[in-house]
């Protein structure tokens, strides 16, 4: 497995693969890899001749009061995970490599980013789109793999790829959970044992929504209300949002119809966690 820090090195290696007619699968990450990332790498391994993983804690997608400095990092362990998953190349650039002096170009969109996480993190998706677009230009993958846990991000990347005519297949992969239901996240490491227990309120609240939908409830307002009430039962939890939107364009819905995203963001102590489910309603 090659570990590259420069764009030039990555271009050289991927260029050789392309000349040999190899397909390239790409998994962009911010490191501190867990089973959710591993499932993306496994999918990339199955479906492509070569697999590239990027490990880059992207400063542009963090707000000024967010956890950029404390975001967990462990490159050595991450490289071990990548090796075991059969990754061919890890791209681990320094911030200066991605954002040299004078950097002032961005990728952004007018839709999809105003709701859900975009409300409390107004510059987040611009940072995500910019870095992902840059990584796509550097790695030139045939397929790129994103977890459904960041469902809004997945919808935003799909739209960017469609709107800007990028010739890359975006593959969404299911959420990986702990046995007790907590969605895997690098940020789970911030939780104290008590908070870890309290964090189960996210998946419990989604289970409550699923129960209502299975029982025939189609009124989005009624489901939102139940989810909010459920979150309020947990003293360590503070709701950011509990919402239901159309998945394709992240617009709020009154009634459940077609493919909808039921999504939550909740602070457990100081840690902001997200979770969701995508439901198709006939
Ligand atoms: O999902 C993430 O880890 C990040 O948002 C991504 C896609 C790697 C961009 O920095």
Any key phrases for this structure?
282 residues; alpha/beta; Rossmann fold; Pantoate--beta-alanine Ligase, Chain: A,domain 2; 4-stranded antiparallel sheet; 10 strands; globular; binds pantoate
Summarize the main sheet. Answer: 6 strands, parallel
Order of helices and strands: EHEHEHEHHHEHEHHHEEEE
The CATH C-level class name of the largest domain: Alpha Beta
Provide the spatial order of strands within the biggest beta sheet. 1-4-3-2-5-6
Shape: globular
Structural class: alpha/beta
Count the beta strands: 10
Distance between the termini: 46 Å
How much β-strand is present in the residues? 15-25%
CATH superfamily of the largest domain: HUPs
Helical amount = 25-40%
Tally of structural domains: 2
CATH topology of the largest domain: the name is Rossmann fold
Hetero compounds: pantoate
Radius of gyration: 19 Å
Topology summary:
Blueprint: E1 2-4, H1 7-19, E2 24-29, H2 35-47, E3 50-55, H3 75-84, E4 89-91, H4 95-98, H5 117-120, H6 124-139, E5 143-147, H7 151-163, E6 169-173, H8 193-198, H9 200-214, H10 220-232, E7 237-246, E8 251-252, E9 258-268, E10 271-281
Parallel strand pairs: 1-4, 2-3, 2-5, 3-4, 5-6
Antiparallel strand pairs: 7-8, 7-9, 9-10
Helix pairs in contact: 6-7, 9-10
Bound molecules: pantoate.
Pantoate (PAF) binds next to strand 2 and helix 6.
Give a nutshell description of this structure.
With about 280 residues, this protein is an alpha/beta fold.
